[in-house]
Amino acid sequence: MVLDADIPSVTGVLRYVPLFAGLTTEQLHSVAGLAEARRLKAKQSFLRQGSSADVIYVVLGGQIRVSEITSDGHEIIYRFIGPGQMIGGMAAVGGMTYPINAQAVRESSLLAWRTDAIQRLMRQHPEIALNAMRLMVQRIEELQRRCLELATEQVRQRVAHTILRLIGQHGRRVARGVLLDLRLSRQDLAKMAGTTLYTASRLLNIWKRRKIIAFDTGRILILRPHELVRLADGPTPEEVPPASNDLAAPV
Length: 251
Description:
By secondary structure, this protein is of the alpha+beta class. 40% of the residues lie in helices and 23% in strands. The chain has two domains: 7-149, Jelly Rolls, CATH 2.60.120; 153-233, Arc Repressor Mutant, subunit A (Orthogonal Bundle), CATH 1.10.10.
């Protein structure tokens, strides 16, 4: 549905969205006026790899899983998108296709702007175009770092770096440490780190025994973040035996 009576409340949310940073309240009203509200059920897909990129989204609530299927059928999970974050930025260019798949992990709400609407807004408010460029550059830099990790790091480092990256995006300080406040299965973590479920599970179990992490209602609680940073910088060789079926040996 197109937003109407809800525009004032939506404007309050958009004020904290990086894509619209620097806009006045009046300008945010015009942004909200061109948006469509969308609600997704848990596990509902809404953006498919290879389909026409004609809508840009901002997440209002919930959690979105972003992935890609490789030519040999393997799934790579890139990130989890939370409230205030943008997805589908290539729709602002026009004539492109989505390189990723997106699925709601749980019930989620989004705002959507079609290509013609977002291009109109960018012409009216150049700040939006600049913000979109900054966000896209940040994503490219993140992908470059991940490629470097896959090429040069051992599995322990990659898993530790993946958790640290997720802390930066979804971490919440609690009494015992930092809670990774999203629904993340061990298989999801393995796919993000470029390893196997077997290896990721062994590492998590070892780190749990060493009281570096714990599990809180299915979520990862980081008890000693500084230890995770040390593991990301360079683990000791005795921490986990090698797994011959890993995607990138040695472990």
